[in-house]
Structure formats: C-alpha cells, structure tokens
Amino acid sequence: MKKTPLYNTHLxxxxxxxxxxxxxxxxxxxxxxxxxxCVRNTAGLFDISHMGRFxxxxxxxxxxxxxxxxxDVDRLSDKQVLYTPMCNEQGGILDDILVYKWHKERFTLVxxxxxxxxxxxxxxxxxxNYQPIQIKDLTDCTSLIxxxxxxxxxxxxxxxxxxxxxxxxxxFDDFSWDGTPIMVSRTGYTGEDGYEIFVNNRDVVxxxxxxxxxxxxxxxxxxGLGARNTLRLEAALLLYGDDIxxxxxxxxxxxxxxxxxxxxSFIGKESLLLQRSQGVExxxxxxxxxxxxxxxxxxxxxxxxxTIGKVASGSFSPSTNKNIGFxxxxxxxxxxxxxxxxxxxxxxxxxxxxxxxxxxRKPGNECT
Length: 368
Hints:
Gyrase A, domain 2; Alpha-Beta Plaits
C-alpha cells in the first residue's frame, strides 16, 4: 500500500485510515458530518496527494492535450484550469481530469488516483504522433493539499503570507512561502470556494501543521475522504468509478457541456457525434429519497415491474438533511419530478428526480 508524505501526521491526529485505490488514506478524523459541516461553514484541510499529476511539455504539447480531451484547451489563457473528460475511441470516459495550462508548451494534468497508471500509459500511446514531447509523472515527487471553505482565502493569507484573493476561479499561480516555491489553484471539489496547494514533499508536513495550528481559532479542521464524498455529491460533482467510467459517455451525464464538437478533432469525437445524432438511451440524473432509506452504489431502480436503471452513488446529505444520489436510468424516465422505487435490501423505497446541484453555496459564502 502506498502512503502519502502526510501518513504519520494523519495517524498522530487519530485518523481512521482506509485502503483507497492502493493508498492508505484518512477516511475521517472526527465524525464525517462534523468535518462536512466545518467545510460548509469555515474551512477544512484535505490531503489529496494520492491524485495523479502529470506534466506534459514540448512544442506540440498544446496540440496533444487538445486531441486528448473533449473540452477546448485552445480557449485557455495561461495559468487557467479546465475541467474535462478524457475519452477512448468509443466515447467512453477514461477519466475526468483537470488541465492546468502554464503556456502552450507546458501543461499539468491532475487525474483520479484510480486511473493514474492507466492514464499515463494511454497518454504515452497517444503521444506517438506528437513527438518530441515529454510526459512526466510528478505524483510521487510532489504533495497536494486543499483548503476548502468560505474562510480558506483569509487562512492562506494569514498563515503563508500569500494573498490569493485576486485569483479568479479555475486559475492558478506561483507563490513563495518561507522561501519555498508553491503553486496555488482555485478549483475545488466540495461545492465551496477553496484552494489547492502544490508543494514539494519535504515541506508538506510543515505546511499542513502550520495551516491547522494558526487557523485553529478560525475553525479549520482536517477532513477525510468521507466528508469529501458527501460534499462533492451535494454539489453534484461526479465520482469516477461510481457515477462515470469507460462504459459511460459524457453525453449521458450532466457534464455533456464539456464536449466541444466545434473545436476540431479529438479522441472519441466520431462516436460521440453518432450518439448525439441517435439520441442518448440513458441519463445520469440526480434524485432524492421520498421514503426513508439511504441509496448506495449498485442498488436497482424500479418502475412498475421494470428495472430502469441503478444507483450510481448515494448518501445522506448533511446540508439538506435528505438522502440523495445519482442514478443512471433510461432517458425517458430522467425528467425532473419523475418518481420511481429504489430497491434497498429487497424492499422498495420511493424516490424522485430533482434538479441538481442538491446544495448551492450560500450568497456571500466566497473565500475571505
């Protein structure tokens, strides 16, 4: 099992460690609901060093990344970040990733840890016609932590003497903290505003401890994978392996907007054009439970005597006090307000399709 450089730090804070795609990661330190609420109201600090990070450089780097993903990399300014699926030739989602553009000859890609090895091999295979190009795996060379919540901007400034306040969402920049170079971005995976910090391994423990110690009175808490999952689900952000995978295309999901057919050639375009012309047969839709019962991945969705789909991901939502989830169902049943049954341990419970996101950030709940 792999361990991030913060492993012993997590143990010292009595984190409950679990196996997560080859890594030992903190599930929770306190209660998941407490950590979830802390991120919504103040700030939570997450270790996400397990996520894959690749650097792509060369004079054809921009052409290569543009071909690799469905979204339009050419629209990016320098030091801007793009969310996008990366598909196979059949239009299936190999991964959903973040593309960081330094300039046209240098990109950093942040990928899901479950797909890191697969993604790296796929990129190497696809790069044959774009040589000379370099694809470097930075995952084990650097650490990545994220401070999420409405007070996170002020906490960064207080602790690191770094002022990210002028940074727009989905942008990044270089900073210096105590003589140490760090990169800070403003994306997030929680539904709250927040920042990611890329730092070398030797300094990450010092940085982690400093952020927690200096902002303890401000309400910051370390948070684990449990809260990260409930936060992202409330914000209707997709989880690879549960909500999407290689059998799912972007057009079947709420991120169909990331497929830019007008940008030129990209891997999977022909298959996705065909699917668009024929119409999608299934949809990934958000739902909430009417009856009591928590939906979980794989539970059957039933309408009358017919099984019309399955639960993709589901959980209790601390912010809405409801049981919510995503389901992959036949498209004709995916309209908002449509009701069906979720089969939980051989019993059926009423649910209905609802508008997503399930949770919206409170007005004025921006980083300060």
